[in-house]
Amino acid sequence: xxxxxxxxxxxxxxxxxxxxxxxxxxxxxxxxxxxxxxxxxxxxxxxxxxxxxxxxxxxxxxxxxxxxxxxxxxxxxxxxxxxxxxxxxxxxxxxxxxxxxxxxxxxxxxxxxxxxxxxxxxxxxxxxxxxxxxxxxxxxxxxxxxxxxxxxxxxxxxxxxxxxxxxxxxxxxxxxxxxxxxxxxxxxxxxxxxxxxxxxxxxxxxx
Length: 207
Fold this sequence. Notes:
There is one protein chain. With 207 residues, the chain is of the alpha/beta class. The chain has two domains: 26-95, Ubiquitin-like (UB roll) (Roll), CATH 3.10.20; 103-184, Translation Initiation Factor IF3. The protein is built from five helices and eight strands, in the order ββαββαβαβαββα. A four-stranded mixed sheet has the order 2-1-4-3. A four-stranded mixed sheet has the order 5-6-8-7, covered by helices on one side. A hairpin with a 2-residue loop joins strand 7 and strand 8. The longest helix has 18 residues, at 80-97. The protein is elongated and about 75 Å long.
């Protein structure tokens, strides 16, 4: 049975001097007292917020909330600008290390002819052979949307047509007037290695 649902809208937040949703800086911090960590990393104990702000200001640095769930919250004195720069640099480096898999999109209609379907299947199999993912989208026109099971049948036929060249990464989902599924190339099994002793035994015909 296919699972249907609707995609959730993305939420956009205004950019401000907040490192994350729960990490605040200076006068944005609302706690009455904080557990303070100095710029050198030493624990300075629990102090009133105004005291922590004054210590940070005297050092020419910022007071940053780093553990809002703690009781009391934990704040650290640091250079916020440098902290944000280093954080963004690390995130950028991590994104570079993350392999980006190209995704190709193939659109289908409920009334697609068998020849056209085979053509699109051949394209999809070619993309999968190249290591790319395939986003399959069935577009419903007019009153076709009242029969989503027909879209599910078409998607099922398409997946079966791809055979062992694909795995279903994302199950078919009804999104507005489209039904979408993501197909990915199957992971290649790890090669088995024969250790040196086993290799010698095989070469010598020993058990």
